[in-house]
């Protein structure tokens, strides 16, 4: 799984947006990509919502079920 993420990152960020002039540029682009990947990317298998939103809903469901018990 990690190799898949690394390949995706290299393809979408490193190769596509380079050449890079400074390490700071790579770091900032990485932060932007990670934010998009976790918070804004729509993921079809979970209902076309971002992974962070799905995780929040999951934990809210857990809290609701523990309160009901």
Please describe what this structure looks like.
- The longest helix has 18 residues, at 23-40.
- This protein has 3 helices and no strands.
- With 69 residues, it is an all-alpha fold.
- It has one domain.
- The radius of gyration is 17 Å and the shape is elongated.
- It starts with a helix and ends with a helix.
Compact overview of the structure:
The chain has one domain (19-68).
Outline the fold blueprint.
Blueprint: H1 2-17, H2 23-40, H3 51-68
Protein traits:
mainly alpha, 69 residues
| Radius of gyration using CA atoms only | 17 Å
- Strand proportion, as a percent range, falls in under 5%
Shape: elongated
Secondary-structure-derived class: mainly alpha
The overall pLDDT average reads 92
How is the biggest beta sheet arranged?
none
Helices and strands, in N-to-C order?
Answer: HHH
Query: How many helices?
Result: 3
* Count of separate structural domains: 1
């Amino acid at each position: 799984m990690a190799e898949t993420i690394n390949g995706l990152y290299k393809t979408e960020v490193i190769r596509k947006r380079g050449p890079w002039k400074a390490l700071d540029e790579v770091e900032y682009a990485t932060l932007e990509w990670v934010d998009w990947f976790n918070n804004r990317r729509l993921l079809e298998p979970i209902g076309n919502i971002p992974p962070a939103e799905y995780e929040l809903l999951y934990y809210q469901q857990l809290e609701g079920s523990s309160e009901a018990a």
